[in-house]
């Protein structure tokens, strides 16, 4: 069929044979030489490769990739948080103690320490009807490690047997009770309770969270270690490496004592009594400036 095209008319290419194209225009078909046919940007865009369905598929795929990139880190973070909660629940309650104490518990458990050897937030009965609150206890093959967990920012100055230390944070200077002496009291109270195992080695480890610097700390006693949180595992490994294995006389009894101390902390009245006794000991409510 013969028909005439004007410049700018849009046609559909049906096939090609050499320099000739079979074309379709307004329901009519015919042939035209390639020198008279020009491909516009619109015709290129409408090639089979860019059909609307393919465009939609590309768009959907692009959106899925974007969602994957954006939400994968969030999902992984949620997954790890839920997994950590499950690990923590094997030893302690999620709202018990401080966040830094719970972080240390998690570090121990995630690095191979057995659930039955980790005890968090213990309230030991003392001879004066009070409680000695211990942040964390770990039973190891070489003895018992008693942890005192601190959350401080600044520069620390003090000596092992000095009752009070100095902490400088910016332009502010504070006086804090020696964590070494504080943990020695905890260890003494623990020994009083496990009196049938007086020879069991007990190590004191004070773990500092926050941006804390040991500027001038000396005369640290034997079996006592001070460390920042990122080196706590290193300290535990050192204790286990340089000390001989200890043969516990009655490990089950020690675990029972620690479990009872942990149960004491579940009782609200015990917590309130301990806080009241600390407040009375400090006597801040009896100071009038």
SSE arrangement:
Blueprint: E1 12-17, E2 20-25, E3 28-33, H1 41-45, H2 52-89, H3 99-110, E4 118-125, E5 131-140, E6 143-151, E7 154-159, E8 164-169, E9 172-177, H4 179-193, E10 202-209, E11 212-218, E12 224-228, H5 232-242, H6 251-264, H7 268-282
Domain SH3: 1-42
Organism: Pedobacter helvus
Domain NERD: 96-213
Pick out its properties.
289 residues, 3 domains, five-stranded mixed β-sheet
Overview of the structural elements:
The structure is a single chain. With 289 residues, this protein is of the alpha/beta class. It is 38% helix and 29% strand. The protein has a 5-stranded mixed sheet with strand order 4-5-6-10-12, sandwiched between helices. It has a 4-stranded mixed sheet with strand order 9-8-7-11. It has 3 domains: 39 residues, no CATH class; 33 residues; 193 residues, no CATH class. InterPro entries: NERD, SH3-like_dom_sf, SH3_domain. Pfam families: NERD. It comes from Pedobacter helvus.
* Share in helix: 25-40%
Radius of gyration: 37 Å
* Tally of domains: 3
Summed up, the helix count is 7
Gross morphology is elongated
Structural class comes to: alpha/beta
Distance between the termini: 111 Å
Number of strands: 12
If strands are numbered along the chain, what order do they take across the biggest sheet? Answer: 4-5-6-10-12
Largest sheet: 5 strands, mixed
Unreliable residue stretches? 44-50
Strand proportion, as a percent range, falls in: 25-35%
Helix and strand sequence = EEEHHHEEEEEEHEEEHHH
What's the mean pLDDT score? 82
């Amino acid at each position: 069929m013969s028909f005439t095209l004007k410049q700018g008319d849009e046609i559909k290419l049906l096939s090609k044979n050499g320099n000739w194209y079979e074309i379709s225009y307004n329901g009519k078909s015919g042939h035209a030489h390639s020198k008279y046919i020009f491909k516009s940007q619109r015709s290129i865009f409408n090639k089979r490769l860019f059909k609307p369905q393919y465009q939609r598929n590309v768009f959907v795929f692009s959106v899925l990739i974007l969602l994957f990139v954006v939400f994968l880190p969030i999902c992984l973070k949620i997954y790890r948080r839920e997994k950590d909660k499950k690990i923590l629940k094997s030893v302690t309650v999620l709202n018990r103690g401080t966040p830094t104490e719970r972080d240390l518990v998690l570090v121990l458990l995630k690095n191979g320490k057995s659930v039955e050897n980790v005890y968090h937030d213990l309230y030991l009965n003392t001879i004066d009807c009070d409680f000695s609150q211990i942040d964390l206890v770990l039973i190891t093959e070489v003895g018992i490690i008693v942890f005192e967990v601190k959350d401080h920012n600044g520069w620390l100055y003090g000596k092992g047997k000095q009752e009070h230390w100095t902490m400088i944070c910016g332009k502010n200077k504070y006086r804090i009770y020696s964590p070494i002496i504080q943990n020695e009291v905890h260890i003494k109270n623990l020994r009083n309770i496990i009196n049938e195992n007086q020879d069991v080695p007990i190590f004191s480890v004070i773990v500092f969270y926050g941006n804390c610097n040991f500027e001038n700390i000396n005369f640290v006693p034997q079996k006592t270690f001070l460390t920042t949180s990122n080196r706590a595992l290193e300290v535990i490994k050192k204790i286990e490496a340089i000390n001989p294995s200890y043969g516990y006389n009655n490990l089950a009894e020690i675990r029972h004592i620690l479990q009872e101390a942990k149960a004491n902390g579940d009782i609200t009245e015990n917590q309130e009594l301990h806080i009241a006794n600390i407040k009375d000991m400090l006597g801040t409510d009896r100071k009038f400036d």
